[in-house]
Amino acid sequence: MSQVLALAGGPKAVQTDPGDIFDWPIVTQEDRDAVLDVLERRAMSGTETTAAFEREFAAWQGTQYCLGFSTGTASLQAAMYGCGVGVGDEIICPSLTYWASCLQVYTLGGTVVFAEVDPDSLCLAPGDIEARITPRTKAIVCVHYMGHPCDMDPIMEIARRRGVKVIEDVSHAQGALYRGRKVGTIGDVAAMSLMSGKSLAIGEAGILCTNNLEIYERALSLGHYERFGDDIQTPYLRESLGLPLGGYKYRMHQMSSAMGRVQLKHYDGRCAEIQRAMNHFWDLLEGVPGVRAHRPAKESGSTMGGWYAAHGLYRPEELGGLSVTRFCEAVRAEGCSTSPGANMPLHSHPLFNTTDIYGHGRPTRIAHSDRDLRQPPGSLPVTEAMPARCYGIPWFKHFRADIIAEYAEAFRKVALNAERLLADDPGNPPTLGGWHFFRHR
Ligand SMILES: *Cc1c(COP(=O)(O)O)cnc(C)c1O
User: Fold this and answer.
1) pTM exceeding the 0.90 threshold for the entire prediction
2) CATH fold of 29-261, please?
3) Residues of the chain with pLDDT under 70
4) Residue ranges of the domains in the chain?
5) Residue 3 Cα, ligand 1 centroid: separation in angstroms?
6) 68 lines ligand 1 (CB under 6 A)
7) Cβ atoms of residues 287 and 308 within 8 Å
């Protein structure tokens, strides 16, 4: 293989047409039949297909209750409401995540306090949570970020001791294991996106899972009026049956739940192949300076789930200080699409600092707070350093060793020739990444 970088006129590391290796979700006649069946039954707005999907999802996830939603955003808002978040209450969440891990809390009159992430897992740092708990803290939102399980044991210990609920945001990581347990079964409630493009992709949809009846019924009461009836057991909820307490309508479109039933059946098998392909990619890069796998240690009992928006960790200090911006430019020239950064830290956006959304006459972030809990840029240094320390990697859906080797070679070749790139390194711009990184095809 040539060592001359493509940026310097050498041959590209990636030469072969990738075919369907990146296509997701995998759609077959079985999906088409299921969706058309809903259409022909004019059953788009019913609940029977969704109820069947919920039963199957509950069995797969291993929780007693599952509730389908129109979006992951809605399911997470309902999880917050389920945990009792109300006016003036606080949730703790990482700032390095998609906005729907926390932003809906404003609609409940609550607010968010951000905690740092661990620089290797990119998930909530257990050591940075406890000092941020106040009498107003109702829940900790654990995001299994980009497929990597959060370190749940210490987080659950803190939460139990301090009487705070734990919400798992599983949008990126369906099927991941944390020390042998499936993520989504460890906290008090899990909620997640099932949007096209996510690991478990069924259209526009979300789902909430819990073993706690009160959380389930509160979550249901927010936007499922058609199911908020005589079956409800929580006494105080029974006083208001029939209309949605949140004033929302959140049921899942049945073309999504029909597709979900098909996708779920194949999910474990397809994920096993993704797991094999992605681990092979990282095994090929083991020992290469500057690049590190974002995955749990082997033999830890923890695994990635689905590898949604897979990223790699960047260590510029091993490459003479080469910026991740220049690094990615060189990898792209090798024929492998990548970009620097990940989600932009949420606390850098005006919505978390100055914006008055509802006319409270003060920033919504502190509209109901008795202290100024805002976290201006500079206040979360570990999180703020992360965008310059990660980059996107290919998300392989099939184990095809020859093709995977070409993409790994793109990263290896650039890392091993990093010193040649230093002269023209423009450095990183002030911000890297975006508010979302999923590109709709
Ligand atoms: C996509 C996503 C959501 C929101 O899900 P939607 O289905 O898009 O509403 C929530 N949290 C995370 C971490 C996500 O990536």
Assistant:
1) yes
2) Aspartate Aminotransferase; domain 2 (3.40.640)
3) 1, 437-441
4) 29-261
5) 40
6) no
7) no
